[in-house]
Design goal:
heterodimer; A: alpha/beta; Purple Acid Phosphatase, chain A, domain 2; 6-stranded mixed sheet; 19 strands; 19% helix; globular; B: mainly alpha; 2 strands; elongated
C-alpha cells in the first residue's frame, strides 16, 4: 500500500505584506464636499470657467512648443472670436459636442406624458453632430477630418490650429491637448532589484487587489464566487502557491457597485420601469443585501485593509463626486480602523513598507533591505461612471474603453463630460476633476471586460519615461475576476473565480492589452 | 491719550466715592447728540485709568472714523452708575438732569470690531486712475440709465462684466475677486479696496453683483 505523500507545508508560516496609506499633500485632489459648500444655487458656468483657466496655460505651453517653429508662422489668438480670416492661427477653448441625440431636458418637458418615455440610448453620436470650440467670448464650429480623428467629447480643453473658412467655420489642421501632467510621486531610485536574488525578490512583491461590481442583492447573485473570493483573500483557500500569492496582497479596493439596483422580483411583477437620464429605478428596499455585504466586509477587514467606493448602483447619491458611505452602514466592519470609506473618485497614496525578512534562516544584512526600498504610489480610483458616459459619445470600433481612459489622462481631466451629460456637483471655485498630477495607477471599476494599458508621455520615447498603468476592472458578478496590481513593478495579474455550473466567472478569460498576464484558476 | 479733566462740580450728583474708570466710547454713526458748541472730536484713548472720587469724566469721542483704523481697540461699555459722560466740553455736563439713566439710554453701541474698515469716498481721488481705465474700456461713452449711480457703481459694474474673471452671477463681488486672484488673473486692486470699505461690505449695491436679486 503506497503511503500518501505528506502535504507540503511551508517551512515557516506566511506573513501578509503590509502597506500604509500615506496622508495626502496639498496638491492631492480631494473630492469631499464640506457641509458649507453644499449649496446648489451656483450655476455650472463656474465649472467651465475654472476648468479652462486651470488648463489653459498647460495647453498653451504645449501648443507653442509644437507649432511655433512652423514655416507658416501661425498666429496665436487670445479669443475664439478673433480668428483672422485666411491666415493660419491657433486658439484654445473648450470643446462642446452638439449632438441631437443627447438627452435634452427640453424635449423631455415637451413630451406628451401619456406615452412612455423612450429607453435611454446606448450611443449618442450620429451624422448630424457638430463640434464647437468655446471660450468666454463665443464659440466657433470646427470642421475637418482631423476633428473626428481626435475623438473628442464635451468639456475637453484643446488648442486647434487651422484657418477660417468662407462660411465662418474653422477648418482644423492640427489639435493639441494638455498631455500627461507630471507624476505625483517621485521616481523610485534603485528600483532595479530584479537582478539580485530572483527567487526571493519575486516572492516579496506587494499587490493591491481591486474588485468591482459585487452586486449583492441582485436576483441572480454570485454568492458562491464571493464566498470563494473572501476565502482566497483571507488566505484560507487554495494550495501553497495560492496562499503565497494571497499573502502578498496588502489591501483590497472595492471600486463601486457593491449593492445591486435590480429589484428582487416579487411574484407577478414582470416589467422593470425604464430609467430616465440615470435616475435610479425604484428599488424595493430590503435590508438583507446590506447585511450580507457587511458580513463579507467583516470577514475581509479582519485580514487586510479595505477601501470601499460608492458606485452607480450604490445608495450614495447620483451626482459626482459621490460622497463616502456612512460608516454606520456596515455594522461591525466599521469598528476597524483599517476600513476606509472613500469618495468616488478617490485619490489614494499607498506606500509599501520596507520589507523585513520573515524567513528566519536568512541573515539580515543591510543589502537585503536595500533591495526593497519603500515605494509610494498614487492611485486614482473611480467606479467607472465618467468612462461609461464618454463611451456613449464615441463610436467604439476605433475607440475602446481603454483608449477612452487613456485619453482622459492626456486631457488631464477625469470626467470632461461632467456637467453636460454626467451629473456633477455645482462647484464654484475650482474643478476637482482636473488632474494636476498624474497618478501611477488609474483604476476604473464597473467595466464590462478586463483591460489594461501603460500610458507614457507622448514626447520622446514611448516607454522610456514614466508610465501610468490603467486598469479596467470588470464587474465581478459577471466575470468573477479579481485584479492584482503590483505596486513596485506596475504589472497586473488576474485571478478568476468560477464554480462549475454557475454562470459568473471561471471561463476562458483572455486579458487584452500590453503587459498583462492573466492567471486563471478555477 | 486721555486727558481727563477732573472738574469738580458741585451740583447734584450724589457723592459717589467709588473710583471710576476712564474708557473710550466709540460711536459708529456720527450723530451729534448733546453737543453744545465747540465740541471738538478727539482721539480715543486706549488707556484705562482709574480715577478716584470723580463725578465727571470727560471722554473723548471720535466722531470721524476715517483713516484711523489701525489704532482703535475694542472697548466695552460699562453701564456703571458712575458718571459716564459724553461730550468734550465741560459745559455739556451742566445738565444735572442728565442722570446716568438718560445717558445710558442714548449711548451708542460702543462695541467695535478690531480693524475698522475705512469709509468709501465716492468722489475722492483714490480711484481716479482706475476710473480712467474703466471709461476707456467702455469706450468713453456715458452710461445709459445711470441716474443715481456714482463712479464707484460704474467701476464695480465693469468689474462684474469683465468676462476674463469668470461668471459674476451667484457670488458676491469679493468672492469673485478672491477667486480671480487665486487663479492668477490679476484683478484690479482698487476694486478690492472698494469692496473692503465700510460701505463696500454692508451695502448690497456695492458688495453684490449687478444682477443680484434679478437673476
Amino acid at each position: 500500500m503506497a503511503t500518501l505523500d505528506s502535504i507540503p507545508t511551508p517551512s515557516c508560516p506566511l506573513v501578509r505584506s503590509t502597506s500604509t496609506v500615506v496622508p495626502s499633500t496639498e496638491t492631492t485632489p480631494s473630492f469631499l464636499i464640506d457641509p458649507k459648500n453644499k449649496s446648489y444655487k451656483h450655476q455650472y458656468a463656474n465649472i467651465y470657467f475654472t476648468r479652462l483657466t486651470m488648463l489653459r496655460s498647460a495647453v498653451e505651453e504645449r501648443a507653442r512648443a509644437r507649432w511655433d517653429g512652423l514655416q507658416s508662422e501661425p498666429l496665436h489668438v487670445a479669443r475664439v472670436l478673433d480668428i483672422v480670416k485666411s491666415q493660419l492661427c491657433w486658439v484654445i477653448g473648450t470643446v462642446y459636442m452638439d449632438m441631437p441625440l443627447k438627452p435634452n431636458v427640453l424635449e423631455d418637458i415637451g413630451r406628451d406624458h401619456s406615452i412612455p418615455a423612450p429607453p435611454p440610448r446606448e450611443k449618442f453620436y450620429c451624422d448630424e453632430d457638430s463640434v464647437m470650440l468655446e471660450d468666454e467670448s463665443g464659440r466657433i464650429k470646427l470642421v475637418g477630418n482631423r476633428v473626428s480623428e481626435e475623438r473628442l467629447v464635451t468639456g475637453v480643453i484643446v488648442a486647434a490650429l487651422g484657418m477660417e473658412t468662407p462660411t465662418g467655420d474653422f477648418e482644423v489642421v492640427d489639435m493639441c491637448t494638455a498631455g500627461l501632467a507630471t507624476f505625483a510621486e517621485e521616481e523610485i531610485l534603485g528600483s532595479d532589484a530584479m537582478d539580485v536574488d530572483v527567487d526571493f525578490s519575486s516572492t516579496r512583491d506587494e499587490y493591491v487587489a481591486v474588485i468591482s461590481g459585487l452586486s449583492i442583492g441582485s436576483p441572480s447573485p454570485a454568492d458562491a464566487q464571493i464566498q470563494m473570493l473572501v476565502e482566497y483573500l483571507t488566505g484560507e483557500a487554495g494550495g501553497p502557491e495560492d496562499q503565497q500569492l494571497a499573502s502578498q496582497i496588502t489591501r483590497l479596493i472595492i471600486a463601486g457597485n457593491s449593492l445591486s439596483l435590480e429589484e428582487y422580483m416579487e411574484e407577478g411583477e414582470e416589467d422593470k420601469r425604464p430609467r430616465k437620464f440615470g435616475a435610479s429605478a425604484q428599488a424595493n428596499f430590503s435590508p438583507h443585501p446590506n447585511l450580507a455585504l457587511s458580513a463579507h466586509l467583516h470577514d475581509l477587514i479582519s485580514a487586510l485593509p479595505v477601501h470601499i467606493l460608492p458606485g452607480e448602483d450604490d445608495p450614495s447619491g447620483i451626482i459626482l463626486p459621490q460622497q463616502p458611505f456612512p460608516r454606520a452602514m456596515f455594522g461591525k466592519a466599521a469598528t476597524f480602523e483599517s476600513f476606509y470609506c472613500e469618495s468616488n473618485p478617490a485619490w489614494l497614496r499607498v506606500r509599501c513598507d520596507e520589507t523585513e525578512s520573515s524567513i528566519r534562516n536568512e541573515r539580515r544584512t543591510s543589502s537585503s533591505k536595500s533591495n526593497h526600498p519603500p515605494v509610494t504610489r498614487s492611485l486614482l480610483v473611480t467606479s467607472g461612471q465618467p468612462v461609461l458616459d464618454m463611451y456613449k459619445y464615441l463610436p467604439t470600433p476605433p475607440s475602446s474603453l481603454v483608449s477612452i481612459a487613456a485619453s482622459t489622462l492626456r486631457w488631464r481631466h477625469v470626467a470632461p463630460t461632467a456637467p453636460d451629460t454626467l451629473w456633477c456637483h455645482p462647484y464654484r471655485d475650482r474643478d476637482p476633476f482636473v488632474l494636476r498630477k498624474t497618478p501611477d495607477i488609474y483604476l476604473v471599476g464597473g467595466m464590462p471586460k478586463f483591460g489594461t494599458k501603460l500610458v507614457g508621455s507622448e514626447d520622446g520615447s514611448g516607454r522610456a519615461g514614466r508610465c501610468c498603468r490603467i486598469v479596467l476592472v470588470p464587474s465581478f458578478s459577471q466575470t468573477g475576476i479579481l485584479v492584482l496590481v503590483n505596486l513596485r513593478t506596475l504589472e497586473v495579474q488576474c485571478v478568476d473565480f468560477g464554480v462549475e455550473g454557475l454562470s459568473a466567472g471561471g471561463g476562458e478569460q483572455r486579458s487584452s492589452g500590453d503587459d498583462g498576464d492573466a492567471m486563471a484558476e478555477g | 491719550m486721555s486727558s481727563t479733566k477732573k472738574s469738580r462740580r458741585n451740583n447734584s450728583a450724589p457723592a459717589l466715592k467709588q473710583g471710576t474708570l476712564a474708557f473710550s466710547v466709540k460711536r459708529t454713526n456720527s450723530h451729534t447728540t448733546t453737543k453744545t458748541k465747540g465740541t471738538l472730536p478727539r482721539r480715543s484713548s486706549p488707556l484705562i485709568e482709574k480715577h478716584a472720587a470723580e463725578d465727571a469724566i470727560d471722554l473723548e469721542i471720535n466722531n470721524e472714523q476715517d483713516s484711523d483704523a489701525v489704532l482703535e481697540i475694542s472697548s466695552e461699555e460699562e453701564y456703571s452708575p458712575a458718571s459716564v459722560k459724553r461730550g468734550g466740553a465741560p459745559n455739556a455736563t451742566k445738565a444735572s438732569t442728565s442722570s446716568p439713566a438718560k445717558r445710558l439710554k442714548d449711548n451708542p453701541p460702543a462695541v467695535k470690531s478690531v480693524g475698522q474698515r475705512p469709509t468709501l469716498d465716492v468722489s475722492g481721488k483714490a480711484y481716479r486712475k482706475h476710473y480712467g481705465h474703466v471709461r476707456e474700456k467702455m469706450g468713453h461713452l456715458e452710461p445709459i440709465h445711470s441716474e443715481g449711480q456714482n463712479r464707484i457703481h460704474q467701476i464695480l459694474r465693469v468689474f462684474d462684466m469683465s468676462y476674463e474673471y469668470g461668471p459674476c452671477v451667484g457670488m458676491s463681488r469679493l468672492e469673485r475677486w478672491e477667486r480671480a486672484a487665486s487663479f492668477g488673473l490679476n484683478p484690479p486692486d482698487e476694486v478690492r479696496h472698494i469692496l473692503l470699505t465700510e460701505e463696500g461690505v454692508e451695502k448690497d449695491e456695492y458688495s453684490q453683483c449687478v444682477l443680484y436679486g434679478e437673476v
